[in-house]
Amino acid sequence: MSAEVEAYHPGLEGVIAGETAICCVEQDRLLYRGYDVGDLARHASFEECAFLLLHGELPTAPELALFKKQIDGERELPGAVVEVLRAIPRQAPMMDVLRTGVSLCGNFSSAKSQGASNLLTRAVRVLAAVPSLIAVRLRILAGKPLLEPRPGLSHAAQFIYMAFGREATALEEKILNLTLVLYAEHEYNASTFAARVCTSTLSGLHSSVVAAIGTLKGPLHGGANEAALHLIDQFRSGPDARAWVEEALEKKVKIMGFGHRVYRNGDHRAFILEPYVDELAKARGEPWRAEVYHAIKQTVWDKKKIHPNVDYPCGLVYYFLGFPPDIFTALFVMARVSGWCAHIIEQHENNRLIRPRSRYTGPAPRAYVALAAR
Prior knowledge:
This protein is an all-alpha fold. The protein is built from 18 helices and three strands.
């Protein structure tokens, strides 16, 4: 075979597997439909970003109001879905619960065709269902009555109300909204690619989202924010953290929340979110957590010249907001489902079955040997 046919890129690193108009990930910028993520983080609501990803343009005021109304109209879960959430064992991880919940919700979707308008309808349904699934499961586990959605709340405030039964503070709403914007989309990452592979078979939107959730569950992709918090939580001082990290790096232990397949100069999203680590640590009266955070970050940089990715600050930020670690990656889904659905729709618009080849490394051709002769 030719060298071109035999070219092999482990993990598909550097391989251009498709074209997209949704997101641009480069060393020095991250764009959603051409808009810099920093500008969106400063000025936009998550609902605006979700509309942008799904429709290609930022909404007008009437379009945004209608979009929010459509989401609000889909927040309440079918009774049968709630009963299944009650039946799932208590020890089941939230990502497994979410995977099952989204799959089950697909059975209640009346939009059957694969047309663009029906895909958008189902995208809104999934966008609305994910925070409701997380919130209802949390209420069930806490033994508390379920709460009906309150139309008019932002996506972030609605989740906090339905999950914890209280109004979000302005700071809580602001920071959760910010993380949703930062997590909303990131080009051909593993979960998005899984969604597009599934979509390319014409399996359906809910199936593709379930494939993405299963992929995001892995700690090398979405689970790093929870793992980063567990790392930080081991220490009570910066020197203790630094000593452990130095030893861990000597033993080639992977430090979760650091490094990125694309970014080499640092993750833009981490830079945007990181200032809130110090602000929240001070507000919570736990400045030592910020000290540990910075000690780990600086040690990894000093020893390996590796920057943190967005999961590193996000894990601590979610802790400061009072969220249980088991839902950290599920909150990632709450944001990224907007990007997944945009990619699912884009894949449908110009579909070709995704079917790569592999390099065979097994035995050379050999003759069959009869059973009696073996």
